[in-house]
Amino acid sequence: MFSKALVVICFAAVALGKPVARSLQVHETREQVPAAFSLAGPASPDTMLNLRIALVSSDMAGLEKALYDVSTPGSALYGQHLSKEEVEQFVAPTSETVDAVTSWLKENDVEAAKASPAGDWLSISIPVSKANELFDANFSVFTHSKTGTQSIRTLTYSIPTDLKNKLDFVHPTTVFAQPFSGPQFHTPILTPAVNVTSDAVPSSCGSTITPACLQALYGIPTTSNAISSNVLGVSGFIDQFAQKADLKSFLTRLRTDLPSTTTFTLQTLDGGENPQSASDAGIEANLDIQYTVGVASKVPVNFISVGDNNQDGINGFLDIIQFLLNESTPPTVLTTSYGFNEPDLTSSVANNLCNAYMQLGARGTSILFASGDGGVSGSQSQSCTTFIPTFPSGCPFLTSVGATTGITETAADFSSGGFSAIFSQPSYQSSAVSTYLTALGSTNSGKFTKTGRAFPDVSAQGENVEIADGGEFGTVDGTSCSSPIFASVIALLNDNRAAAGKAPLGFLNPFLYSAAGTAALNDVTTGSNPGCNTNGFPAKAGWDPVTGLGTPNFAKLLSATANL
Predict the structure, then answer these.
(1) Residues 110 and 214 in one domain
(2) Catalytic residue positions?
């Protein structure tokens, strides 16, 4: 029989071979599986998980102040955008934070690698069994009902209590981001193309929108200084590829004043590519490229193709921003025609990604996102009882773009808009939103958060927009049309500023909501965005959650921004 002393020695030896037990506390949790997903069963214990750990940054409040200092008209620091290194000083976690988290991981035989330029993200690769043990979680396989796509997630996880103010969150864990869907291609165009440069708006623009229509409606110029440093970035996701042959056909038909050889530069990440066979043509990618190259005349355009090898849990949304933040000179404008329903993301992930947009904005990039195509029911039309805000449109550090339709512009009924349930209302829009809410009265009371960040901020044409795709012409609808159109306007304004030796506009909203900015937009006062068995929000004079502050008037915007 073992002696008592020997038993104690054995227990001591076992204890020395294990990490010291730490008190854990639940960090994030979901009460139930989201409606669009179903639980398939527990994940195999041996399956490897690539997880990222977000660390608490040292001074995000300081970065936010710096962003507003360089973005607010009248500020002594307006236009003095921060360098990569200056931004990273705000974002980087303290050495104490890094040491505490990495020490805990090492105790558990887990090696971490730096996963972001500022070091605020770490990456780890561990089997499901280890992840369940480390985070007191239950990683399982979930299936997206519509597409059959499977992902490994957990409904709850914990972290050591003593790391609460150092470890921000673990990702992807409780995020259930749905796969993107793109715009639909309509019946091929049979009417002859119209190419005008005067202020007269052709009657054909009432049924089909072309670059000539936008030039006439908004006064967009047909030329630029083509300043090489003024780059317009276009985000590409989900194997949507931009075809050079389709772009050439588009320019040949609808921008005869531009060389048909005008093209774009390709950037890739996460295994991204851009194959050029007709069968690879992507409606969304073609739309975005044709209405940047074809509207922002000769402004350099980069198509940034995010591949399927993204493992950030949100379809590459975080990866593309980290990719651009790592560049010494990121694009001066970035347009993205994709997004999520805000409830699909946890508040921690939404806040972290929003803060990444803040970083890029502080660097001098104007970030524009399509607001979504489901009216008040979210990114796409769906059944709901309360209004569903979209993300990233609810982030206060970017510009959300809604949609209009018609020569006498009215709100497109699919234009998503509303109020974030995660982000509070920024001061730059409080007066405009208060005026709208007063006029709205009790309509839709209880269906939205009145104190949330309100969106969209602006709008542009988004219905019956003509594109070339796969060798034929047709039309598409959606705010995914509106964002590249408005982004092209900003790129052309930046072109004029660059020619005058001035900094790019950067984060736009403090200017747009100023008296000068509002006066430079065409107010849209009719239409609404129905959804959730309601008529949604009505467009009204001033800002509204359908068309924002309105559509661009290039001449007025040029005058208003020339002296900023």
Answers:
(1) no
(2) 284, 288, 480
